[in-house]
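Here is the promised in-class demo. Please do not try to memorize the tokens; focus on the logic of going from shape to residues.
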């Protein structure tokens, strides 16, 4: 019933189509695998394998290694610098990147704002921003949410008023964005701002790109429950933004924002990385000082891990089906909501298995994992326990970000006419 109402393509058709091109796909997979094994920066993989956190310099190095190969923006049309891969190749690339343990490129520039720029931007905006994103020379942040506007995003109040002293060539922006992922790394932030309050709340919203170095922009860290600094508040006090930084028409920002959200939600699947995490649960169990819990045939953990693997397999097939509109050159449809929910639940389930495996050592504590010797004080505790605990705690947020699970269910129900 869900399938027909959402007009999802049949996964078996896709799998059949994939297998006819099996040889080519196998060759492509081998090429990608060899890149991650031989050309990709070893130090980044080593840091992550050591449980260390990585910062902006590593993320840029990772992205620039992909950019040098022409592989940083698999989803972009070839005319803007995409590699021209088909949907299967993009899926394989994603799987291999995750399986290698490499970090996904930061999505805010590449995945979120770039499609808005090349779909709705002017030629000079494309020339100005796309090249830098494609070469990982600039970092972008997403300025949508506000303290009183999250799920109900259209209630946003950050204002942008035309400066009459400059004949309307500048906007003056005032307000506050919150939960801004990696805003402390960003050179640019794309924001939804209110330029008119007279109509429906979805009207009068405008899409503005703001240089983070502009006077009046202040970034304040928010430390999350895992002890990490990923989130921020970004406040704007009389920030002057040239009108040429506006994407599309004034007041039509909501249309562009909705287009972007479908790309965002489809990006959460990360199937390859999840398979790698499951393999790691097995590896950690086999090496645990208290014995291999998963080896026991009546192990409840083993049975729950099998459930998680089944859920991940379902996510894998669902992702292929939901990506099908992209193959036809269309934006992802509302099916993206099913991916968001399934990816969230599966990702959280994997970290729950890690936590169960760690047992009492899962009690949260936060060593400084930017220090390469962070394990020294923890001799008696397997390293996966603090790493797993941190990821368990942070993964809770996935139920909320990118549109909460409840909101995704509302979207699906609406699609079904419920
Ligand atoms: C880790 C993380 C990273 C983020 N990164 C960014 C970012 O980079 N840029 C950005 O702009 N934002 C970002 N966000 C913000 C995120 O998009 C919002 O948190 C999200 O939209 C929810 O809004 P809220 O926090 O205001 O919660 P609320 O909207 O207040 O929701 C609170 C609760 O009420 C429920 N609820 C709300 N409305 C309904 C409804 N109609 N029906 C049923 N239930 C409902 C929600 O499901 C939730 O459980 C991030 C959030 C997190 C946690």
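The designed amino acids, position by position:
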């Amino acid at each position: 019933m869900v399938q027909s109402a959402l007009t999802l393509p049949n996964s078996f058709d896709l799998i059949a189509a994939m297998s006819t091109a099996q040889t080519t796909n196998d060759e492509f997979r081998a090429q990608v695998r060899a890149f991650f094994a031989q050309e990709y920066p070893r130090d980044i993989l080593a840091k992550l394998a050591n449980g260390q956190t990585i910062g902006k310099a590593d993320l840029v190095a990772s992205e620039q290694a992909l950019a040098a190969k022409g592989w940083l923006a698999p989803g972009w049309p070839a005319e803007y610098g995409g590699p021209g891969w088909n949907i299967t190749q993009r899926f394989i690339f994603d799987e291999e990147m995750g399986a290698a343990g490499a970090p996904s490129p930061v999505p805010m520039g590449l995945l979120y704002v770039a499609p808005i720029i090349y779909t709705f931007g002017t030629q000079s905006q494309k020339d100005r921003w796309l090249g830098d994103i494609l070469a990982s020379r600039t970092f972008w942040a997403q300025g949508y949410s506000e303290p009183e506007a999250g799920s109900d995003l259209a209630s946003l109040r950050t204002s942008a008023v035309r400066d009459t002293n400059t004949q309307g060539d500048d906007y003056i922006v005032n307000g506050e964005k919150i939960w801004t992922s990696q805003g402390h790394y960003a050179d640019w932030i794309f924001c939804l701002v209110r330029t008119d309050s007279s109509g429906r709340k979805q009207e009068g919203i405008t899409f503005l790109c703001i240089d983070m170095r502009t006077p009046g922009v202040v970034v304040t860290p928010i430390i999350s429950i895992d002890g990490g600094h990923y989130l921020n508040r970004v406040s704007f006090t009389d920030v002057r933004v040239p009108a040429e930084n506006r994407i599309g028409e004034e007041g039509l920002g909501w249309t562009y924002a909705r287009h972007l959200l479908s790309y965002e939600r489809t990006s959460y699947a990360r199937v390859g990385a999840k398979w790698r995490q499951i393999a790691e649960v097995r590896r950690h169990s086999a090496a645990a000082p208290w014995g291999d819990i998963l080896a026991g045939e009546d192990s409840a953990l083993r049975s729950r891990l099998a459930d998680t693997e089944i859920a991940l397999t379902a996510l894998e097939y669902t992702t292929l089906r939901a990506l099908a509109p992209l193959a036809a050159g269309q934006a992802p449809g509302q099916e993206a909501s099913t991916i968001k929910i399934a990816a969230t639940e599966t990702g959280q389930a994997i970290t729950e298995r890690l936590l169960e495996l760690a047992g009492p050592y899962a009690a949260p504590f936060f060593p400084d994992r930017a220090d390469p010797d962070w394990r020294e004080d923890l001799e008696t505790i397997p390293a996966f326990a603090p790493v797993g605990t941190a990821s368990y705690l942070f993964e809770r947020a996935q139920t909320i970000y990118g549109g909460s699970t409840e909101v995704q269910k509302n979207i699906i129900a609406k699609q079904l006419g419920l």
